[in-house]
Each structure stands twice: as C-alpha cells, then as structure tokens.
Amino acid sequence: MTIVFKGYRFVAVGGQMVWMPAEKGKYFTDFLLILVQNIFGREWWEAELAKTRNQRHPVFQWRMKAMMYMNKQPMGGDGIYVPQVTGPMAAYYTFAYDLLSSPITVGWTKNFSHA
Asked: N or C: more exposed end of the chain, with fewer CB within 10 A?
C-alpha cells in the first residue's frame, strides 16, 4: 500500500512503514532501489562501501553497477531514465523483489528507516 502525504511517499511493507521524498519515489523500482539498503541496514551498507570493489558483496556490486549505468543514460523529457535492463539491474531488482515478497522480510523490517 502506498500514499503521498506532505511531500513524502509512504509505503507499507511487512507491517512497517517506509517513506522517502515523493519526488524520489514515483515508481515501484524507486522503492526497490532503497529496499535492500534498508533491510540490510546502514552499518552493513557503509561497511560494503568502504571495501574495495572486488571485496564487496555481490548484491552491493549489482546496485552500484546498475546505478552507474542508469546515471550515464540520457534523461527523458519527464526527468526519468529509461535504460535497457542490464544483467546487474535485473539481478538487483529481482533480489529486492524476492526480499519484498518473502515471509522472512517481515522479521527484517525492523531495520527500515526513512530513505
């Protein structure tokens, strides 16, 4: 379930509420981009960021490669990137969706915070 209120998009996930600025949360894929980071937690994410590229977790590498690729694509007139899906993008979005639809995610949502 999702709603926009006072400039923020609120998304109900596993009995918890996640929110992000509405302009950053227009599409379901915007939510999936932050989902893994929120489930794994800020400490894990920052620890991965501090590692060298070849030492980082594969999920982290997928997201970084996907973001680097997307940011190199031309932006459409409505301010949206519409890239061809790459292997890392497909892997990351599929993993995020699987986490979202998994019953064990309900136990992990305690790590959710605003994006």
From this structure: N
